[in-house]
């Protein structure tokens, strides 16, 4: 396929995906030559693209935080960041729970450990009074 056909195909695909804002930019400041654009037009496009990249980065950060908090809310993992991020988990609670279950099946040491029963710490019942004289008499004789 000749190079001009490839370029025309790419231009058609790009034109199909343009937003209204992109079309307005092209209408207000058309290129003077088919191969080059004036500096102001290129800078305007770069600023717009930079805004989209910043928004995308911010959305990614917020999605990561939401995923971590959803995992924390289940209370099944000691560290909620142990489960890798998956965008599917944000929309489907069953997928999140099944991913946590699968992770705990493979690596049970990542689960939350809560001591139960008497662990030898904390408040205990009274043992009664201590008779030091009785202890000394018992050891002496």
Note the topology.
Elements: H1 3-16, H2 20-28, H3 39-74, H4 88-91, H5 93-106, H6 132-140
Brief rundown of the structure:
The chain is mainly α and 141 residues long. It has helices at residues 3-16, 20-28, 39-74, 88-91, 93-106, 132-140.
Structure notes:
- This protein is mainly α and 141 residues long.
- It contains 6 helices and no strands.
- The chain starts with a helix and ends with a helix.
- About 6% of the residues have low confidence.
Entry keywords:
single chain, 6 helices, mainly alpha, 141 residues
Got a strand count? 0
Q: What string, H for helix and E for strand, traces the elements in order?
A: HHHHHH
Helix content: 55-70%
What general outline do the C-alpha atoms trace? elongated
**Major beta sheet summary:** none
Number of helices: 6
Distance between the termini: 110 Å
Strand fraction: under 5%
Task: Report Rg.
Answer: 33 Å
| Backbone structural class | mainly alpha
Q: How confident is the prediction overall: mean pLDDT?
A: 79
């Amino acid at each position: 396929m000749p190079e001009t056909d490839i370029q025309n195909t790419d231009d058609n695909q790009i034109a199909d995906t343009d937003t209204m804002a992109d079309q307005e930019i092209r209408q207000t400041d058309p290129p003077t030559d088919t191969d080059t654009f004036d500096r102001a037009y290129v800078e305007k496009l770069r600023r717009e693209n930079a805004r989209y990249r910043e928004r995308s980065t911010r959305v990614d950060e917020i999605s990561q935080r939401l995923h971590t908090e959803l995992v924390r809310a289940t209370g099944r993992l000691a560290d909620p960041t142990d489960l890798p991020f998956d965008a599917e988990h944000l929309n489907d609670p069953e997928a999140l729970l099944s991913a946590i279950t699968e992770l705990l099946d493979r690596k049970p040491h990542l689960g939350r450990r809560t001591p139960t029963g008497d662990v030898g710490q904390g408040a205990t019942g009274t043992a009664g009074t201590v008779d030091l004289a009785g202890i000394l008499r018992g050891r002496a004789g």
